[in-house]
Structure formats: C-alpha cells, structure tokens
Design a protein that fits this description.
It is a single chain. The chain is mainly β and 441 residues long. The relative contact order is 0.14. The chain is 5% helix and 38% strand. It is elongated. Strands 1, 3, 4, 6, 11, 12, 13, 15 and 16 form a 9-stranded mixed beta sheet that branches.
Length: 441
Amino acid sequence: MSCKQEPTDNTPWVSLFDGQSLEGWTQKGGTANYTVRDNSIVGSTVHDTPNSFLTSNKMYEDFILELDYKVDPSMNSGIQIRSNSFPHYMDGRVHGYQIEIDPSERAWSAGIYDEARRGWLNPLTRNPEAQKAFKQNDWNHYRIEAIGDTLKTWINGVPAAHLIDDKTSNGFIALQVHSIGDDQQEGTEISWKNIKILTDSLSKYATETPIDPIITKNALGIDEEKNGWQMLWDGKTTDGWRGARLDEFPDKGWEIENGVLTVLSSGGEESAAGGDIVTKETFGDFELKVDFKITEGANSGIKYYVDTDINKGPGSSIGLEYQILDDERHPDAKLGNHEGSRTVASLYDLIKADENKPINPIGEWNTAHIISKDGHVEHWLNGMKVLEYERGSDDYRKLVSESKYVTWPNFGEAEKGHILLQDHGDRVSFKNIKIKPTTKE
C-alpha cells in the first residue's frame, strides 16, 4: 500500500528565523518582551510602553514573504514591511506598511495599514471571505507580495488585500507587539514561526489575485477622509484650479499625464509660459500636503495666502512660499535676504529650513507639508519639521521688512488666500495634493 507523497516545494526560500535565536533581528520602539520558544518567536505585552517592533537587520525592496502566527484573541498586532526608523521622523518612530493582525470582531487581518503615517489604506470592509478566513486561537498563514508599487496579501490561502501605492519602496520587516492600556492584561502573547522570504525570480513565483486593487494615487484613505482631508486635485482634470491671472486654467505650460501634474520647462523664467496656477477656492487655517518631484537645476514653489488681485505685473503672484529648489545646482540656494532662505522647504526669502532636512534625490518624490493654524505656521519635509513661525508677530514683520516683500503692505497676513503652484520655467511635477481646512465655520 503506497503512501501519497506531498509535492516538493522547490521555491528558493530564505529563512529569516533560525528557530533558536533572535539573530538577524533588532528591537525598536517599545519594550515588549521577545523570546524564542518551541521554534517560534514569542512577543508578549507589557504596560507603559509604546508599540514594539522586532525588526529585520536587512532591508528589503521587492519580495514575497510567508509566515505563520498565532495571536491571543485580545491582542492587536501586525507585520511591518518596507518600514523604516529615521531620527528625523518622530524621533525614530517605526513607520510604514503594516499587514494587520486583528482577532477582534472587525476581522481585518491581512488588511494593509500605514503605521504612524496615513492610517488605513486597504481595510477588509468589502472582503467577507478574507474576514472569515482568520482562525481564532490557532495558527494562521500569511502570504505577502511586495513587487514594485503593488502589495498583495493572502490569509490562509484566501486573497485579502490588493493595494497600489508608491509611498515607500524599501525598508525592514518587523513583528509588532502593540501597546496596551491599563485595563488590558500584561503578558498576552503572539507567536510567529516559519518566517521565510523570496527576493529572486519574483515574476516566476508571483500570484494572481482576483481582488480589484485599491489605488491611493490622488485619492484619500479612509482615515484621512474621516479626519477631514480633501483632495485638492483629482489627478485627471483641471477642476478647481485656474491661472493666477486667468479665469480658466492655462492652455499651455502645464500637462496632466498618468495622474501627475507637471509645469513644463520654458527656460527658467518666472511665470513666462503657462504661468502660476491657483485654487479657485480660498483657505484660512489649513493643513496642506503635496508630493513634488524636481528635475536638475529646477526652481518652483508652493505659495499660500495668495491674493491674485495684487501684483498684476510681471513675475509670480504674491504669497508666502514653501520653496522648491535643487539646492545643489540652482544659484538661488546661495541668495536671499536672509541666509539660506531660498533653499528647498524654506519660507522663501524669510526663514531658512533646517540644514538637516531629509531631501530625496533628483527624480524621486518628496512630500511637502504645511500647517497653518491661528497664525502659527510650520513647514515639514518628508516627515520632518524644518521651520516654524508666527504670522503677524514682531519677529515676522521684522523679517519681512528686511526682505524683497517689504514693498507689499501686510505681506502674508491675509485671513484667507489661494494655494498656488508656481511656474518658474523649470520642469517640476506634483501629485497627491490634499488639504485639511480647519477654519471654523
């Protein structure tokens, strides 16, 4: 009588855990306990600590990852992928994509969350089959594929999440033990085993999924929407925008292609081609986020509290400016009435951005973040606050009096204004333009 043999798996997996030690892993964040028991990594909760992460020492870009885990029903956890910890970002806080582990009634296990950034990207609200696939008080199996801008997950063989998002392409893998409240039991456990990764010949081993993807480009996540964010550009049309000196959008000098809005090169002169574009709407207090990408030697800017009825002559419209610049190659980086005040992320001609700012190389995307509330303004670049100031303060007015803006009465102190993207004659691209108005009605 012959025994039926299991098919041999010839996939060239590489084990990330030797079954005996935590070699190859480093703990970041909180102080939860990680130990090795019965060929598994066991994480247990402790009070009075933030989220804890056991992170791989190696960084991974494109990969297929498989593992098994068993979790206490009262816990929340997750598998971090393409995650990072930088001194400039929330004092080293671990952030990045998290493949959720959720034994609660919500049952979003294998959904995709953006830890310490945007919140939920791919919940399982429309995938009851995956929600039912989780096994309580038992081992569960995950398959996670991260190839290019596409993330796909499976739980116990059931397709769960399918996300297209290009925020981060590289980072570590981490096993999370979530923080707990005072009312939760200390010492609850989650175990992981059979952790293996594939980084070669991924096209050969990648799996099709029947799930339609969630695409985040020029779209809000569910948490962003709940928190009052709005898209300021729809990624396809010129709706909501016009030329700063026009009633409609310029008919030349700008292009929209593949969800990217680009001001075209015209020789580096200010507002000489299509000209600046502004939102049709005006804003008072707000938070603004814009992804931008520059070309070599480029100059542009994001202006706010712009009044298009002043400065009808040559040049750009008048407003406070978050500078966009190739600091290495553009001469403006060495100019300015206040030293360094024309470098990238600076308040143009007034306040220099932090020298340690994290700027990505030419051709890569960066995220500008401007917060303006009750006169207090902050510029952020790629998750780091690079400057702050008080509009209308004595210090601010002194800076203005020493700048090119001295000729404009009450410069930058308008209660409301347009948001502007600048045409400075250089090719610069924008996407994911979103705003959170906070002006009280």
